[in-house]
Amino acid sequence: MEMTQTHLTTTELARRRRKTMPLASRILWQRLRAGRIAGHKFRRQHPISGYIVDFACLKHKLVIELETSPRPTGDALQRDRRRMLDLMHEDWTVLRLAESDIFNRLDQVIATITRHLGPGPDRQVASTRGEQHA
Q1: CA 118 to chain centre
Q2: What is the CATH number of the domain that holds 33?
Q3: Interval 40-54: pLDDT, tens
Q4: 29, CA 20 to 30 Å: which among 21, 44, 100, 124?
Q5: How far apart are CA 82 and CA 77, in angstroms?
Q6: What domain range includes position 100?
Q7: CA atoms of 128 and 126, how far apart (whole Å)
Q8: What is the rounded distance in angstroms from the CA atom of residue 90 to the CA atom of residue 128?
């Protein structure tokens, strides 16, 4: 008997999500994987503290999340904010990227990620749209 999603562990759910990543995630993963950004290693659909993040560089405690359009509202927005705050509380930097930027400005996205991998990372939530989120 197959387990339902409610009975899957976070790790099992992450494994399933790796197989069904959206196009923007697959495109970004091709640029992040195998140390292709200055030798930095990333994981995709990686479990952290009960959450599954889109991408993570463990060495630099950098989480990359792709924002889809439209942005979440209501309860989904509250869950998203709680998740961000929980990750930041554990000293992760959360970089939020617009999915559309993966398609239209991939080189700028990679430059933004590279800047966040430098020494002394800023612990705010950053976005490719130039917004700063608390």
Answers
A1: 17
A2: 3.40.960.10
A3: 999 999 999 889 999
A4: 124
A5: 9
A6: 5-133
A7: 7
A8: 23
pTM: 0.76
Q: Tell me the CA distances in angstroms from 23 to 19, 30, 32, 59, one per residue in order.
A: 12, 11, 14, 26
pLDDT in tens, 78-126: 888 899 999 999 999 999 999 999 999 999 999 999 999 975 334 445 5
Per DSSP, helices labelled H in the chain are 10-19, 23-32, 74-89, 99-104, 106-116
Distance CA 83, CA 68 (A): 16
Q: What's the helix, strand, coil split of the chain in %, to 5?
A: 45, 25, 30
Q: Which amino acid is at 31?
A: R
Total domains in the fold of the chain: 1
Q: Please, what is the average pLDDT of the chain?
A: 81
